[in-house]
Design a protein that fits this description.
The protein has 2 helices and 19 strands. Strands 1, 2, 3, 4, 5, 6, 7, 8, 9 and 10 form a 10-stranded antiparallel β-sheet that branches. The protein has 3 domains: 150 residues, Galactose-binding domain-like (Jelly Rolls, Sandwich); 45 residues, no CATH class; 30 residues. The structure holds zinc ion (ZN). Zinc ion binds next to loops.
């Protein structure tokens, strides 16, 4: 029994080290850009809105320096995105759909490297086409580092995916952050795509929509509800591969899919 415990703690220790190294590696390479969205209140023209800070960056202009695109949506204005191109972009998404009514972007310098044009695009689902929410060109931004614009979203449409493009003719765009303000829809649906279950994650049996109360539907109208059992594919059993005891370890099984260790075949 003691040996099993030791084996398990060694396995957990290795896992923790591997995860820590993965995070450090990801951060140093600038590829992990997951920031969960935090909210606060902002008053614009006498109306209170929710200010959304920090998003998950999914794509952007690659740069030859440490100032990667993810820095623009990490909720931290002391990190920045610095591209030596005429147009630079970042694509990002919020944790949940939001109704954007405006945005705030920040420049690195109060005087230099600012865009003269920019576009904010959005879409509700990852597979939708982008629509343009806000577009400016030929601008000369005033001195200062924070620039706030209202969006034309009169229909109060909710979106989850965003793309911000900035441009200037100096081929030198340096920005620190973009935040959105607006509101959270009372009822919203998240699109679920078919995926196979694994031994660590349940799967999705059919493309459908999950409402924010947790219920499943065939579309975004909430008309035809689906049973959870028709949507969620249960976890698969682990696939234990047997390893004989040696001088240094007891007999154990390791799952060939998730690599977890087990002291018995099940
Ligand atoms: Zn497994």
């Amino acid at each position: 029994m003691k040996q099993k415990k030791v084996l398990r703690s060694i396995a957990s220790f290795i896992l923790v080290i591997a995860m820590t190294f993965g995070v450090i590696l990801g951060m140093s390479m600038g590829i992990v850009a997951q920031a969960s969205t935090t909210t606060s209140t902002i008053t614009v023209g006498g109306t209170d809105y929710t200010l959304f800070t920090g998003f998950t960056a999914t794509d952007g202009t690659a740069v030859d320096n440490a100032f990667v695109y993810g820095n623009m949506v990490d909720g931290n204005t002391s990190t920045s995105f610095h591209a030596f191109t005429s147009t630079a972009y970042v694509e990002f998404n919020s944790d949940e759909p939001i109704i954007p009514k405006g945005y705030i972007f920040n420049s690195y310098s109060a005087d230099y490297y600012k865009p003269t044009g920019w576009v904010l695009k959005d879409k509700a689902n990852a597979t939708d086409d982008w629509t343009t929410l806000s577009f400016y060109s030929g601008q000369t931004l005033s001195s200062g580092q924070e620039f706030q614009y209202a969006c034309d979203n009169d229909g109060n449409t909710a979106y989850k995916y965003f793309r911000f493009e900035a441009s200037n003719t100096a081929n030198n765009i340096w920005l620190t952050e973009i935040r959105l303000y607006g509101s959270v829809p009372d009822v919203y649906y998240t699109h679920l795509t078919v995926k196979a279950a694994t031994c660590t994650e349940t799967g999705i049996k059919q493309d459908c929509y999950q409402r924010n109360d947790g219920k499943y539907f065939t579309d975004e109208t909430g008309e035809t509800e689906l049973d959870e059992s028709d949507v969620i594919a249960p976890l698969l059993a682990h696939t234990g591969v047997h390893h004989e005891a040696t001088d240094t370890n007891i007999e154990y099984w390791q799952c060939s899919m998730c690599n977890k260790y087990f002291s018995d075949e099940d």
